Amino acid sequence: MAARRLRLDVARLFAVGAELGSGRRAYCTSQAFAEVLRLPSKQLTKLVFPLQELERHFVPGSRPDLHLKIFDPSLDDIARAESVFTASSRNRIEYLSSAVRLDHAPDLRRPEVCFIGRSNVGKSSLIKALFSLAPEVEVRVSKKPGHTKKMNFFKVGKYFTLVDMPGYGYRAPEDFVDMVETYLKERKNLMRTFLLVDSVVGIQKTDNIAIEMCEEFSLPYVMVLTKIDKSSKGHLLKQVLQIQKFVDTKTQGCFPQLFPVSAVTYSGIHLLKCFIANITGNLKTNGFQFS
Ligand code: GDP
């Protein structure tokens, strides 16, 4: 059934591309994503829906506690989201500015999403992967922990702003709490906070700084599990189940579905882009309502 749906989606997608011809810039993304769609179905699932790939290790329906498909866009939806993240003369994706205090932040009306996580969790790498179709955007990736000391604002066309928050934990800037807390509490156009957790080590004590802030301010947030290429399938499964249990039992504002990603293999990146496009009101995935 799933394989049939996949083939139908793929056929439809290619048909749309052919109809529009080469003159329509937005559908160049479909061509880039078409490379992904050419993959055999097992590889495609692993790349696009990494959480569902883990499902193969269970008896179907035996883990209702693992929320696999609350957000379950079609490949068509995912291809559309790619166009939001593709830079062109009509869709400028660029670094805007940095700020150490909220009153230095650009006064923007566009919806905003922010990425937060402890130093070295893979935040810059993830943002770079999200902007892979905008190669001119400079996102610093460092081997040294804690290099991001400011809030960095990136404009994604007319669609939304993405904010890279300073890393917390080891060598976090001293005024981190003031800076981040004020931003999270007072930023009016903040639609969702993406809280990064390293899938290799799971939720650490320092991660609770951000979790507690999100919970205290009743912010809607999403847990993104980074570096999933680094673990064995068994280890990843164990971490995912543990983190899922934490989300289900200890959080109020966290989106129930986890988003595992790898900035190395790009696994989960397309799905995350599609989620962001929905969250910021730029795409409407059938059957899914964001509150
Ligand atoms: P930040 O401090 O949170 O911005 O983390 P970085 O993006 O600078 O990443 C910290 C380290 O983890 C770097 O050495 C990255 O190359 C590595 N890294 C980041 N993401 C991944 C990933 O998805 N897979 C693997 N294998 N390594 C990653």
From TrEMBL:
Keyword list, A-Z: GTP-binding, Magnesium, Metal-binding, Nucleotide-binding
MF term (GO), any: metal ion binding
Pfam family, one: MMR_HSR1
CDD domains the UniProt entry points to: YihA_EngB (cd01876)
Highest taxon of the lineage: Eukaryota
Signal peptide: none
Keyword Glycosyltransferase part of the UniProt annotation: no
Recorded coiled-coil stretches: none
Cofactor(s) listed in the protein's UniProt record: Mg(2+)
Cellular-component GO terms for this entry: mitochondrion
Ranges where the EngB-type G domain occurs: 109-282
Protein family: Belongs to the TRAFAC class TrmE-Era-EngA-EngB-Septin-like GTPase superfamily. EngB GTPase family.
UniProt-recorded name of the protein: GTP-binding protein 8
Source organism phylogeny: Eukaryota, Metazoa, Chordata, Craniata, Vertebrata
Encoding gene per record: GTPBP8
